């Protein structure tokens, strides 16, 4: 009898010890999990050490990953949309030269198209899908979020485009945690904030009455003969306001952007006109846009800008007559480097107040300190 009791007690202790070890193992496993809140307000729980294969909803999210991992920012990327290749080929070739293996990244197309292959995402062993906030509604309506969740793929939303001045810091903080790059994220954020403050500390002293009216033409000349799209109080429109200008589009309509009849521009006094451009010539050979990027030259940029200034009716605008006609790299509108555009705008609007500010030197410093590629080419210009 006593022997039976002793045997049962031993079994109980063994089972109890086994149960405790299971609990400890589970606790240790859970301890590695973190919960982050993305910029869409969604709470996502994951283990950063398990994030080994990443899919990008847009290839241009490369701009953001680069500041978090200078050694090899795309080493974990297994799939993306080909917008970096199509619409910023100069940058793609820079990264390709530095990291030839990125040629093997799968082109998955648009995550919201009918032919998007969820099966391919799963086959790639995707751990994390990074999407832009501006596509939240599409992701919900297309059923993409629900399908990815069922497949066990973690999804986070970032924003460097809709509300860049509000969402860049939280986006980078969140990515830093998710990708185990908190140190790098914090270092870049400190730099980013200091670069933004260079302008804000001066501009906040300038009264509204003394601020110039600025019109931004979004993707100027992308479609020859078609005009015009501009930004509202968001994105580059917001940066115009932050740089001490009054964005024309902010006063005309709510939201991110809108289309404008050229007559509306011709009947108003515009102090500055700024177009955006990039190397779209490979995706759209007949484009008249200013082909900014790492392979651009000032000579070609001037020729292209003159073509835009010579469009019917534009030569009569006071901003064109006064040579206050500019163009800037379109891709600043979707990257954490937009503080460079902010500084360029501020120097254009207030050359005396910002005579000691050197955006070109700061852009080079950004590359030298935080990016795996070097600076070359042309990214903004003024009509000569």
Q: How do the helices and strands follow one another from N- to C-terminus?
A: HEEEHEHHEHEHHEHHEEHEEHEHHEHHE
> Remind me, CATH topology of the largest domain?
Rossmann fold
Structural class, by secondary structure, is: alpha/beta
Reading off the top of the CATH hierarchy, the class of the largest domain is best stated as: Alpha Beta
Number of helices: 15
Q: Which descriptor suits the 3D outline?
A: globular
Major β-sheet annotation: 5 strands, parallel
Based on CA atoms alone, the radius of gyration comes out at 25 Å
CATH superfamily of the largest domain: Nitrogenase molybdenum iron protein domain
Overall number of domains: 2
> What would the average pLDDT be, to the nearest integer?
90
Strand content: 5-15%
**Alpha carbon gap, first and last residue:** 104 Å
Strand order of the largest sheet: 5-4-3-6-7
In the CATH hierarchy, the architecture of the largest domain is 3-Layer(aba) Sandwich
Helix % is 40-55%
Which segments are poorly predicted (pLDDT under 50) over 5 or more consecutive residues? 1-29
- Total number of β-strand segments? 14
């Amino acid at each position: 009898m006593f022997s039976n009791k002793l045997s049962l007690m031993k079994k109980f202790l063994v089972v109890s010890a086994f149960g405790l070890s299971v609990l400890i193992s589970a606790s240790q496993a859970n301890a590695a999990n973190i919960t982050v809140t993305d910029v869409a307000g969604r709470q996502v729980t994951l283990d950063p050490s398990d994030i080994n294969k990443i899919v990008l909803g847009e290839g241009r999210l490369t701009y953001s990953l680069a500041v978090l991992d200078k050694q090899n920012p795309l080493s974990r990327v297994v799939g993306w949309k080909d917008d970096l290749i199509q619409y910023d080929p100069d940058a793609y070739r820079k990264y390709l030269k530095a990291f030839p293996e990125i040629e093997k990244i799968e082109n998955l197309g648009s995550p919201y198209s009918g032919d998007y292959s969820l099966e391919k995402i799963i086959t790639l062993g995707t751990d994390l899908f990074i999407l832009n906030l501006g596509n939240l509604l599409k992701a919900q309506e297309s059923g993409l979020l629900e399908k990815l969740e069922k497949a066990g793929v973690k999804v986070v939303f970032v924003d460097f485009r809709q509300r860049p001045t509000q969402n860049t810091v939280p986006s980078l903080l969140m990515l830093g945690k998710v990708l185990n790059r908190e140190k790098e994220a914090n270092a870049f954020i400190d730099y980013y904030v200091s670069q933004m403050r260079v302008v804000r500390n001066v501009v906040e002293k300038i009264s509204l009455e003394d601020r110039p009216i600025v019109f931004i033409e979004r993707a100027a000349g992308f479609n020859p003969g078609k005009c015009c799209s501009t930004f509202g109080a968001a994105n580059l429109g917001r940066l115009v306001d932050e740089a001490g200008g009054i964005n024309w589009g902010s006063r005309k309509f709510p939201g991110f952007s809108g289309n404008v009849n050229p007559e509306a521009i011709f009947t108003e006094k515009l102090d500055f006109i700024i177009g955006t451009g990039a190397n779209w010539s490979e995706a759209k050979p007949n484009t008249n846009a200013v082909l900014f990027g790492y392979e651009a030259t000032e000579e070609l940029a001037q020729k292209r800008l003159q073509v835009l200034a010579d469009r019917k009716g534009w030569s009569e605008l006071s901003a064109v007559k006064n040579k206050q006609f500019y163009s800037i790299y379109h891709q600043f509108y979707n990257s954490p480097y937009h503080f460079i555009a902010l500084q360029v705008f501020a120097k254009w609007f207030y050359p005396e107040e910002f005579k000691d500010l050197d955006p070109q030197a700061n852009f080079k410093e950004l590359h030298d300190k935080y990016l795996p590629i070097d600076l070359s080419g042309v990214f903004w210009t003024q009509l000569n």
